[in-house]
């Protein structure tokens, strides 16, 4: 269920929108009739997406969007409005809107598109959150692995360096990530050289030059070495190295983890030394019976040392002789099995390893007895309380004659490591799945503009059948329709740090052009160095084509209106001529009265047609800065005392701003009856600019103050003040009447912050 907050100042439209969106059962819609009410609703609970109108009282849709984004809220925001101006669209996307949908047209199709955009935006934000959480989980898993672990990419550069290896080597991750040329070998071996992670596919003869106990298991290379000297201390390490593959099965790097087994090795050496000592003592007993007492004491001391070392170990240590009987088990192992040592010693192997595990262990024991060689393996063991993965060494024990009499087993719990490896694989698969299924061009480049990663959908959009074929391509040279646009894009990115919904024209592999909006930012390494640029490009070719078609349709419509108006005006002239000729014949008084009414109506129609010519360009041209001094000079009425305190003030408005003031001044002269003075004042109202237009006429009655701005109200066309308000609203300017009847009319025009300036100050819209 997707929870949507729908904001519009038209209650009827809210109700229709809620019904359409909820009819499939996929959406639940809460509504608000203003941005202020919507912000209050957002304080109460969470929503999956917001749909908002643009033109609303007090707080418009763009201001509402800015308020949302200032809260660091990444909730999807769709601007759904009847205002289709390009600057509104650009402003919406620059402030973080996900989509812009224009009202109008067939209702069912319109709300179907709205549902699709909401669904698309919500799924995109959920995918971004899942990707971020997946990457964080992967990093946390690697960092909290108990064994020292690092990973490299295909070029041999370090891409992971966990906390355990930081502690072992003294080198922080920030000092190692991104390093190549065997830099990772220096903290361990004091020189640059291939280590286990580089020898995964090397022959054993090469590996044996530096490692022992080599074992290949399901593509994993396991070996031991006593050469490392991290921080100047010689250690014996048991390492595991494995290749990393991407979802296409191609090798993308390698990972190695190693464990300090110095203490275990020393224990093994001590145990061997103890056994050798026991054997030597037995030999001496044959020849020197008189030394029996002293030798027995040596034997007890040696055995006590052996047992102390074994019992202190946090690994499972046990000894099984040739007749499959357990002769020793340490305290830790007995505790893990949920029994005492006395309950286990003297029992058969199955007491430790029941079922199929016991059969596998029996085969391994026989291999050691037969070959005389140690065995190292990782296997699953079912303990009474849980299932664990154990890293096991089986070591032959010999008597003084060299005969193998028993096998010692040493097992370490590696369950956490296995779980981390599984989680890492799942995270990588999930991350790759998101990239493979995103429908936009998701990309990364280095600082030279070469592509280092691109999504399958992005490769398809560019005309390539595989993302791999685009790796290394120059973004500006191979994708931009105009390569110099890349410099403009980078200059904005360098100045702001990120770019949102920036319009670009690209070309695909066949040379065909298509339009996109690009949202990009820099990405960094752990030290804060810029590695490159990453972002997403959304194909808006169809939208651009529709906009071009709409502009052409408007041009043709305006041409048709002009031709039609011209023809109608000609016919009205003819009609008035015939009417006045008929009145000149002194017709019957009743007929004469009818002819006068016909002539008056014809004149009214003529004025309305002329008025439509004046206002047909409403909203067609882009807004700009207009000086009030120049506007007043052109529009102030003659024969009236006129004064202004707005010297140097410029207003950001539609080019028809002059018509607004001409209409206000004309209304004062026409309807004020006794107007002899018109005054215009400019003053601050908070962060806004207040422009007050006052006259000393009869004023406007209280009962019609709210009606004068309605379409069709008043004399003549009835469109003057209505269209004045519409012209001002294009750039967010408000107008209302606050005069007192009998003392004159007063129109207050509120220009919002950023919509006015003084003396052509291009650095800021504010004075």
> Using only CA atoms, what is the Rg?
43 Å
CATH architecture of the largest domain: 2-Layer Sandwich
CATH H level, superfamily name of the largest domain:
Histidine kinase-like ATPase, C-terminal domain
CATH class of the largest domain: Alpha Beta
For the record, the count of structural domains works out to 6
Largest sheet, spatial ordering of strands: 7-6-11-10-9-8
Contiguous low-pLDDT stretches (5 residues minimum) are 762-767
Number of helices: 22
Largest sheet: 6 strands, antiparallel
What is the arithmetic mean of pLDDT? 83
Strand content bin: 15-25%
Q: Count of DSSP E strands? A: 29
Helix content: 40-55%
Please identify the oligomeric state.
Answer: single chain
CA distance, first residue to last residue? 48 Å
CATH topology of the largest domain: Heat Shock Protein 90
Class by alpha and beta content: alpha+beta
Outline: elongated
Explain what this protein looks like in three dimensions.
There is one protein chain. By secondary structure, this protein is α+β, with helices and mostly antiparallel strands. The protein folds into six domains: 2-124, 3-Layer(aba) Sandwich (Rossmann fold), CATH 3.40.50.2300; 144-260, Beta-Lactamase; 313-419, PAS domain (Beta-Lactamase, 2-Layer Sandwich); 438-539, 2-Layer Sandwich (Beta-Lactamase), CATH 3.30.450; 545-615; 624-758, Heat Shock Protein 90, CATH 3.30.565.10. 41% of the residues lie in helices and 25% in strands. The chain has 22 helices and 29 strands. The strands form six sheets. It has a six-stranded antiparallel sheet with strand order 7-6-11-10-9-8. A hairpin with a 2-residue loop joins strand 25 and strand 26. Helix 9 (262-287) packs antiparallel against helix 10 and helix 20 (628-635) packs across helix 21. The radius of gyration is 43 Å and the shape is elongated. Mean pLDDT is 83; it is low at 762-767.
């Amino acid at each position: 269920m997707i929870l949507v907050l729908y904001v519009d100042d038209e209650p009827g439209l809210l109700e229709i929108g809620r019904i359409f969106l909820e009819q499939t059962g996929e959406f639940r819609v809460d509504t608000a009739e203003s941005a202020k009410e919507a912000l209050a609703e957002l304080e109460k609970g969470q929503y999956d997406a917001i749909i908002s109108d643009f033109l609303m009282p007090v707080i418009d849709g763009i201001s509402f969007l800015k308020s949302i984004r200032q809260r660091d809220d990444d909730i999807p925001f769709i601007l759904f409005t009847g205002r289709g101006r390009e600057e509104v669209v650009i402003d919406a996307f620059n402030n973080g809107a996900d989509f812009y949908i224009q009202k109008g047209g067939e209702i069912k199709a319109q709300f179907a598109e709205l549902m699709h955009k909401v669904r698309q935006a919500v799924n995109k934000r959920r995918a971004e959150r899942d990707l971020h959480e997946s990457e964080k989980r992967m990093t946390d898993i690697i960092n909290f692995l108990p064994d020292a672990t690092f990973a490299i990419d295909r070029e041999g550069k370090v891409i992971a360096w966990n906390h355990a290896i930081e502690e072992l080597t003294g080198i922080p991750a920030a000092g190692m990530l991104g390093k190549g040329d065997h830099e990772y070998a220096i903290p361990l071996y004091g020189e640059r050289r291939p280590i286990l992670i580089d020898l995964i596919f090397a022959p054993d003869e090469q590996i044996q030059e530096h490692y022992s106990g080599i074992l290949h298991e399901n593509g994993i290379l396991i070996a031991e070495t006593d050469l490392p000297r991290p921080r100047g201390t010689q250690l014996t390490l048991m390492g595991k190295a494995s290749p990393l593959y991407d979802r296409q099965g191609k090798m993308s790097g390698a990972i190695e983890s190693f464990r300090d087994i110095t203490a275990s090795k020393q224990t093994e050496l001590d145990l061997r030394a103890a056994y050798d000592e026991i054997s030597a003592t037995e030999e001496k007993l044959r020849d020197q019976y008189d030394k029996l007492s002293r030798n027995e004491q040596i034997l007890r001391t040696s055995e006590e040392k052996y047992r102390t070392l074994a019992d202190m170990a946090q690994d499972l240590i046990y000894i099984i002789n040739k007749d499959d009987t357990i002769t020793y088990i340490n305290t830790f192992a007995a505790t893990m099995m949920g029994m005492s040592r006395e309950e286990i010693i003297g029992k058969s192997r199955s007491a430790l390893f029941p079922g199929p595990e016991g059969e596998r262990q029996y085969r391994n024991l026989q291999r050691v007895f037969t070959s005389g060689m140690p065995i190292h393996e990782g296997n699953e063991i079912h303990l009474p309380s849980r299932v664990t993965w154990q890293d096991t060494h089986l070591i032959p024990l010999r008597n003084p004659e060299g005969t193998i009499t028993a096998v010692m087993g040493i097992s370490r719990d590696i369950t956490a490591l296995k779980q981390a490896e599984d989680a890492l694989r799942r995270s990588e698969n999930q991350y790759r799945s998101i990239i493979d299924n995103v429908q936009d061009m998701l990309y990364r480049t280095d600082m030279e503009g070469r592509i280092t990663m691109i999504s399958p959908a992005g490769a398809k959009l560019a005309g390539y059948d595989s993302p791999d074929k685009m790796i290394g391509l120059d973004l500006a040279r191979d994708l931009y329709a105009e390569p110099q646009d890349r410099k403009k894009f980078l200059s904005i990115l360098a100045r702001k740090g990120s770019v949102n919904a920036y319009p670009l024209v690209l070309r695909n592999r066949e040379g065909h052009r298509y339009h996109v909006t690009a949202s990009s930012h820099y990405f960094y390494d752990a030290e804060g160095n810029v590695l490159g640029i990453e972002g997403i490009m959304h194909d808006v070719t169809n939208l651009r084509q529709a906009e071009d078609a709409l502009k052409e349709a408007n041009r043709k419509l305006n041409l048709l209106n002009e031709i039609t108006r011209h023809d109608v005006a000609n016919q009205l002239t003819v009609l008035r001529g015939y009417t006045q000729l008929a009145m000149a014949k002194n017709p019957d008084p009743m007929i004469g009265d009818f002819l006068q009414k016909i002539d008056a109506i014809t004149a009214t129609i003529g004025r309305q047609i002329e008025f439509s010519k004046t206002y047909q360009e409403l909203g067609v041209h882009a807004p700009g800065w207009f000086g009030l001094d120049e506007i007043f000079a052109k529009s102030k009425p003659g024969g009236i005392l006129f004064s202004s305190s707005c010297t140097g003030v410029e207003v950001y408005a539609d080019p028809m701003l002059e018509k607004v003031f001409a209409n206000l001044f004309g209304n004062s002269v026409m309807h004020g009856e006794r107007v002899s003075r018109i005054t215009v004042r400019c003053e601050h109202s908070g962060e806004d600019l207040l422009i007050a237009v006052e006259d000393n006429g009869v004023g406007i009655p209280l009962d019609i103050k709210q009606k004068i701005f309605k379409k069709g109200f008043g004399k003549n066309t009835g469109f003057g003040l209505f269209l004045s308000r519409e012209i001002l609203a294009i750039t967010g300017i408000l107008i209302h009447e606050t005069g007192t009847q009998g003392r004159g009319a007063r129109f207050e025009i509120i220009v919002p912050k950023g919509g006015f300036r003084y003396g052509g100050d291009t650095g800021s819209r504010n004075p």
